[in-house]
Design brief:
seven-stranded mixed beta sheet, 21% strand, Rossmann fold, single chain, globular, binds magnesium ion, 208 residues
């Protein structure tokens, strides 16, 4: 698939990112891939692979690699009885949510198996054993206070100077959504990051 074909495919994948935000993510990834080819990227929160295709399409243009990290058991709001529960993603054997088979199929269809590498497990455990500096980090994991802050504190120090930090589900107005992604966005601005773009609830920042 070409870059444009992958973006069109990404829009059809099960997930929570509107096409304008996905395309913005890909556009910044594309610029980063040409600025620094062969880079290491990481996203936290993979679900069924939608954002991995948007970012992977960009990574592939510069022979960069995207690690796509998730425990694949869904966040709180995806569990049974919650608004974002999808019964088609429940494993009939053990009754637990499992997005890994869908994620794997998505990456294969997009032809990105050598560009997007899955990391399956808890973010904090992987972070403690991951030493590679990051050229791009996308935080789109759990929205609860503890998980969002854990992702922020564990992973943002790994972003290299000039590298990008993207955060999803940033809602300045509490009526639009939960606080933690917005709080970590403010923390990043107070730290060494400057904002370069905002599309919907997506924020893209660059590290000084
Ligand atoms: Mg999100």
């Amino acid at each position: 698939m070409t870059y444009e074909e992958r973006l069109a495919f990404a829009a059809t994948v099960n997930g929570f990112m509107p096409p304008d935000e996905g395309r913005a993510l890909a556009r910044h990834g594309l610029a980063r891939a040409s600025e620094r080819p062969g880079g290491t990227w990481l996203e936290i929160g993979a679900w069924c692979g939608k954002s991995a295709v948007y970012l992977g399409a960009a990574a592939a243009t510069g022979e960069s690699v995207l690690y796509s990290l998730d425990h694949h058991r869904g966040s709180e709001e995806n569990q049974f009885g919650w608004d974002y529960h999808d019964p088609t993603l429940v494993d009939p054997i053990d009754g637990r949510l499992n997005t890994l088979p869908s994620w794997q199929r998505t990456i294969a269809v997009a032809g990105l198996e050598e560009t997007v590498i899955g990391l399956v497990g808890p973010s904090s455990v992987v972070a403690a054993h991951f030493a590679q500096p990051l050229d791009l980090l996308f935080i789109d994991g759990g929205h609860g206070h503890d998980v969002a802050w854990a992702d922020y504190t564990a992973w943002t120090p790994a972003v290299v100077s000039g590298g990008l930090l993207a955060i999803h589900d940033v809602f300045p107005d509490p009526a639009d959504g939960g606080r933690p992604p917005y709080e970590i966005y403010l923390a990043a601005l107070a730290d060494r990051f400057v904002e370069v773009d905002a599309v919907g609830s997506l924020r893209v920042l660059r590290a000084n």
